[in-house]
Write a structure and sequence with these properties.
Layout (H helix, E strand, L loop, with lengths): L2 H12 L9 E8 L5 E9 L4 E9 L6 H12 L9 E5 L4 E8 L1 H6 L1 H21 L22 E5 L1
Antiparallel strand pairs: 1-2, 1-6, 2-3, 3-5, 4-5
Length: 159
C-alpha cells in the first residue's frame, strides 16, 4: 500500500480532493454544528512503514493549565482517554497536538475505525480545551477517548 492509495481512499470516503505536498496531506474537520474546527495532517513515513496522523488542538488556556495538563496526562495513560492516540504539547508552536502512528494497511483497510476515531477524538479534545475553565462548573475533558454525539458527525474540508 502506497501513500497515494491511502489519499485516494480518503478522497472517496469523504468526497473531497486532497493535495499532497512532500508526502503530506492536510485538511480541516468541523464538528456537526461547525463550532469546533481541527486541522489534521496525514503524513507518509513509508521508510518506517507507517503513516502519521496529527491534529492541532489549539493553545493551552492562559491560566489554570495545571489541572488540564494533569487530565491530559491521565488520558494518555494506556490510551484511556485518547482512543489509541497520544496527546502532546508542541513546545515550538505552543499548541496541543493529538498524534497517532498507523500502519498503512491499517489505515487503508479501516478508515472508519482508524481515521474517523482519530478525528472524533481530536474534535472532542479541541472542544474540551476551548471550554476548559479552572475552578468552574464546566465538565472536565473526557476520560474515555471521547466521542461526538452519535449522528452529529463532522465535515471535512481540504486546506
Amino acid at each position: 500500500m502506497v501513500f497515494k492509495d491511502i489519499v485516494a481512499i480518503l478522497e472517496r470516503k469523504f468526497n473531497v480532493e486532497l493535495a499532497v505536498v512532500e508526502g503530506t496531506t492536510v485538511f480541516e474537520v468541523a464538528d456537526g454544528d461547525g463550532a469546533g474546527r481541527v486541522r489534521v495532517l496525514v503524513q507518509d513515513e513509508s521508510e518506517r512503514n507507517r503513516v502519521l496522523l496529527s491534529a492541532d488542538l489549539g493553545e493551552p488556556p492562559p491560566e489554570g493549565s495545571e489541572k488540564l495538563f494533569r487530565t491530559m496526562l491521565e488520558a494518555n495513560n494506556l490510551f484511556s482517554g485518547t482512543a489509541g492516540a497520544t496527546l502532546a504539547l508542541d513546545g515550538r508552536a505552543g499548541t496541543f497536538r493529538l498524534q497517532r502512528a498507523a500502519l498503512p494497511e491499517e489505515l487503508a483497510n479501516d478508515v472508519d475505525g482508524c481515521l474517523v476515531s482519530f478525528i472524533e477524538t481530536a474534535l472532542t479534545w479541541r472542544r474540551a480545551i476551548e471550554d476548559f475553565r479552572p475552578g468552574g462548573d464546566a465538565d472536565e475533558p473526557p476520560r474515555d477517548g471521547g466521542s461526538l454525539d452519535p449522528g452529529a458527525g463532522f465535515g471535512m474540508f481540504p486546506v
